[in-house]
């Protein structure tokens, strides 16, 4: 048995909040979410925390642990120094609801604005398609995303500059990349990427890639290729000309 | 109407936004009716994301001998012939179209060499049948439905809990719920309601289910007067993580065994060879070399005994542990690392085929599955039983109420085959949506009865009243009651059952009900987890009682139900399903209902496939 102190952000009813210390005993093999639950069950029944699968697959328990955006269910206690209090805060890039729970509804509104998947005509008579594994590997990487929104939380364009109305954030750049690079998709999402969705705001600091619990190479594999596509489409004079004169269909 | 709560009006209200709920909502909205979708979590977080192995559909992409007949026969054999055969037939016939539809909506399955959807082997399926994406198939399914559904004009109410179904006369016409963020009650008035609330694993101590799996839909339906079916059949998945304690119960996909993983006891022995049931002998290999070839796609090889049905594998593990041949933390060893003897670059191969398993063990247990065996043990995984439905329409016995997915019963009989759950969601989610929309078009919504709303609201708020009476602290909270129930169900109505223990469990449930009626919660109703738990307690106690009552009545062993005092199958018990309903005096009633005889054409299919 070891003793650990969690310094947890508790909101008050006036929209403010403060850190409250909870000290508890822990056994080996626990993760941060276990300790939060232990505190909730014994010391703070009304401590609000969002969680579901407890296996890093649903992306519900996102928080900032000692200042780092992480999933509470996938952060082992033996990776944290317990000689001093461990701070547990909600994601700071989103409005607070209560304690560790934030209002992430903005993400859902953003997604709805992105044009949906539009497949080409089926390849076979029975209405099915043919794709090679190597052609879908990249898209499958993007589709690993569990929508924990930690990449949104850490992105300075959203977190520090509050460009929520002008920039869709790394999560939805990955989402768009998965659609744009889907071998069957025929939709064009580049004009809005450049304008309403603000891809230009990303200056590739790669913080999103660093915090991704699914290890998606967000910046290199999704955002940069999308930026290149936007540039090719709108700023490359040869590509522009080719688009005008190429055979259609 | 004098009610003081906000009212949402829908044609079809879907409760639950996992695979079945989303698929039902999509279908209903495509039929042109107004659809509301209510879920306890955020959209896209439902327990469906935890499904790993794949969805079963006899597309025949990998082995062209596969077709709906083989799938049907496999499902019936797995369910020990207690299945609703009409559901098993429709499921086998319609699953391929439902899977192709997912591809048309953007799902990206793993591919065969000729570019089709790849299919993998799984326990109880004769041919490679599971469409999959590595070991995160559930996430792919749920995300595909979510991303398609958000463009369908469905109104989604996230983080809402439903506390009661509303009724006008006999028919169901909506639900009372509250938003978990603010604790405000809302009325959902609807012409038809689809329950798609998933499982009830949280009635047990060791479970792969998340907090949401508290049997809400089953309990809501029961209290409204719907019948429950086959509640004794709980699937204990043989391979859950057992170490470290914080991850106890989390699933280790059957895909590990499908890719060649083997089970060993602490003597290093592959104990699954010791006990191969008679009805699977002709399909099971006794030669390890042949078993390995099977996992690598050799069509002429028979499957290794590790891929026998889940109930059997779970009991074999239980036996090894009880005999003192278990692993240090009370399980057995599951080893995939050994395949390095067979193939070059085994570590990379394992990471590619089982990425989230690699990840899960590396991160949570600090164990590299490409180098070391995993320690695993059985975990409460799936309820075969649930709300009784019509096999074609998913309608319950209450007009206006439909159910689909895990909370509905029938397809899986006494035991579910791996991979048949994801396909269940899309096949019967689609049907529930279709027929709920049809019902909504043909019926008026009926009246909202204020007294019902007031009574349900009062009951839901009682824990706060008791908290206030107790002066803000001191009275028992909901967590201890929940925990005591989970421990009791695990010990007394678990993998191996006995008459005296289950009688004790029923007695214990009575006592826990009395305690639950007194639990107090404190604070206010905004995002208050103590309160949520207090409300879940009623559901957990209801489903636990239904499980215990049904399990006590079935005096034989079959599928997910194993009786130490009746270890054999009783042919007479193969002829009925246990049906649970609420008696007029409010107590739980069980009756045995004969299974309708198989029609001739299906009888022939089963004969052909023997």
Q: Could you describe the 3D structure shown?
A:
The complex is a heterodimer of chains A (249) and B (610). Chain A is an alpha+beta fold and 249 residues long. Chain A folds into two domains: 101 residues, Beta-grasp domain (Ubiquitin-like (UB roll)), CATH 3.10.20; 141 residues, Fumarate Reductase Iron-sulfur Protein, Chain B, domain 2 (Orthogonal Bundle). Chain A is 35% helix and 15% strand. In chain A, the strands form two sheets. Chain A has a five-stranded mixed sheet. In chain A, strands 6-7 form a two-stranded antiparallel sheet. In chain A, β1 and β2 form a beta hairpin. The longest helix of chain A has 18 residues. Chain A is elongated. Chain A starts with a strand and ends with a helix. The mean pLDDT of chain A is 94. Chain B is an alpha+beta fold and 610 residues long. Chain B folds into three domains: 287 residues, FAD/NAD(P)-binding domain (3-Layer(bba) Sandwich), CATH 3.50.50.60; 143 residues, Alpha-Beta Complex (Flavocytochrome C3, Chain A, domain 1), CATH 3.90.700.10; 115 residues, Fumarate reductase/succinate dehydrogenase flavoprotein-like, C-terminal domain (Methane Monooxygenase Hydroxylase, Chain G, domain 1), CATH 1.20.58. Chain B contains 16 helices and 18 strands. In chain B, strands 1, 2, 6, 7, 8, 9 and 16 form a seven-stranded mixed sheet that branches. In chain B, strands 15-10-17-18 form a four-stranded antiparallel sheet, covered by helices on one side. In chain B, β1, α1 and β2 form a beta-alpha-beta unit.
């Amino acid at each position: 048995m070891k003793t650990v102190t969690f310094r947890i952000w508790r909101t008050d009813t006036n929209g403010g909040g403060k850190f409250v210390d909870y000290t508890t005993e822990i056994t080996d093999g626990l993760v941060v979410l276990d300790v939060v639950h232990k505190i909730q069950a014994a010391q703070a029944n009304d401590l609000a925390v969002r969680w579901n699968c407890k296996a890093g697959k649903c992306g519900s328990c996102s928080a900032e642990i000692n200042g780092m955006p992480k999933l509470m269910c996938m952060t082992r206690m033996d990776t944290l120094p317990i000689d001093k209090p461990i701070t547990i805060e909600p994601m700071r890039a989103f409005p607070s609801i209560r304690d560790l729970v934030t209002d992430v509804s903005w993400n859902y509104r953003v997604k709805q604005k992105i044009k949906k998947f539009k497949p080409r005509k089926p390849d076979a008579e029975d209405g099915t398609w043919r794709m090679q594994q190597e052609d879908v590997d990249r898209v499958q990487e993007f589709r690993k995303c569990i929508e924990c929104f930690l990449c949104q939380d850490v992105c300075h364009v959203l977190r520090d500059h509050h460009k929520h109305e002008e920039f869709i954030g790394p999560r939805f750049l990955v989402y768009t990349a998965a659609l744009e690079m889907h071998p069957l998709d025929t939709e064009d999402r580049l004009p809005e990427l450049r304008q309403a969705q603000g891809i230009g705001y990303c200056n590739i600091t790669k913080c999103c890639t660093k915090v991704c619990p699914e290890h998606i190479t967000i910046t290199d594999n999704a955002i940069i290729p999308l930026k290149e596509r936007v540039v090719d489409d709108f700023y490359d004079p040869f590509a522009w000309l080719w688009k005008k004169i190429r055979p259609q269909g | 109407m004098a009610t003081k709560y906000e009212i949402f009006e829908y044609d079809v209200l879907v409760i639950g936004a996992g695979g079945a709920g989303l698929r039902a909502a999509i279908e209903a909205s495509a039929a042109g009716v107004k659809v509301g979708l209510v879920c306890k979590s955020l959209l896209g977080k439902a327990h469906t994301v935890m499904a790993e192995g794949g969805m079963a559909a006899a597309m025949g992409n990998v082995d062209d001998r596969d077709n709906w007949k083989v799938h049907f026969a496999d499902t019936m054999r797995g369910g020990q012939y207690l299945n609703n055969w009409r559901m098993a037939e429709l499921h086998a016939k319609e699953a391929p179209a439902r899977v192709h539809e997912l591809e048309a909506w953007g799902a990206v399955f793993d591919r065969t060499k000729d570019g089709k959807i790849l299919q993998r082997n799984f326990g109880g399926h004769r041919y490679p049948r599971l469409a999959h994406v590595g070991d995160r198939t559930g996430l792919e399914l749920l995300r595909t439905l979510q991303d398609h559904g958000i463009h369908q004009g469905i109104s989604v109410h996230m983080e809402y809990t439903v506390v009661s179904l509303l009724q006008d006369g006999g028919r169901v016409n909506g639900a009372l719920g509250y938003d978990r963020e603010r604790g405000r009650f809302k009325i959902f008035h609807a012409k038809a309601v689809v329950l798609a609330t998933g499982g009830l694993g949280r009635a047990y101590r060791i479970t792969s289910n998340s907090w949401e799996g508290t049997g809400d839909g089953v309990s809501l339906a029961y209290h409204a007067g719907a019948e429950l079916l086959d509640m004794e059949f709980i699937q204990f998945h043989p391979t859950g993580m057992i170490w470290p304690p914080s991850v106890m119960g989390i699933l280790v996909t059957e895909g590990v065994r499908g890719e060649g993983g083997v089970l060993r006891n602490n003597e290093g022995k592959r104990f699954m060879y010791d006990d191969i049931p008679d009805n699977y002998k002709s399909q099971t290999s006794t030669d390890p070399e042949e078993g390995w070839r099977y996992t690598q796609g050799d069509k002429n090889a028979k499957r290794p005994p590790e891929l026998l049905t889940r109930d059997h594998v779970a009991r074999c593990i239980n036996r090894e542990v009880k005999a003192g041949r278990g692993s240090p933390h009370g399980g057995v060893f599951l080893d995939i690392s050994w395949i390095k003897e067979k193939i070059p670059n085994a570590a990379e191969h394992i990471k590619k085929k089982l990425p989230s398993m690699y990840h899960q063990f590396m991160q949570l247990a600090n164990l590299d599955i490409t180098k070391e065996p995993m320690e695993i043990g059985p975990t409460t995984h799936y309820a075969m039983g649930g709300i009784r439905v019509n096999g074609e329409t998913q309608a319950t016995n209450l007009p206006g109420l439909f159910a689909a997915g895990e909370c509905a019963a029938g397809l899986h009989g006494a035991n579910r085959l791996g991979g048949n759950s994801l396909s269940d969601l899309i096949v019967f989610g689609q049907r529930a949506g279709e027929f709920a929309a049809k019902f909504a078009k043909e019926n008026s919504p009926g009246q909202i009865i204020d007294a019902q709303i007031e009574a349900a609201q009062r009951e839901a708020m009682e824990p706060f009243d008791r908290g206030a009476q107790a002066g803000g602290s001191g009275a028992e909270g909901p967590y201890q009651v929940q925990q005591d129930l989970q421990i009791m169900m695990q010990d007394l109505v678990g993998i191996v059952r006995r008459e005296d223990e289950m009688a004790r469990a029923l007695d214990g449930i009575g006592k826990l009900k009395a305690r639950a009626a007194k639990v107090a919660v404190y604070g206010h109703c905004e995002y208050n987890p103590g309160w949520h738990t207090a409300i879940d307690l009623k559901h957990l106690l209801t489903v636990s009682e239904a499980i215990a009552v049904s399990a006590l009545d079935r005096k034989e062993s079959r599928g997910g139900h194993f009786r130490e005092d009746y270890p054999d199958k009783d042919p007479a018990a193969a002829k009925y399903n246990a049906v649970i309903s609420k008696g007029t005096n409010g107590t739980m009633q069980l009756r045995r209902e004969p299974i309708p005889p198989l029609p001739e054409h299906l009888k022939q299919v089963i004969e052909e496939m023997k």
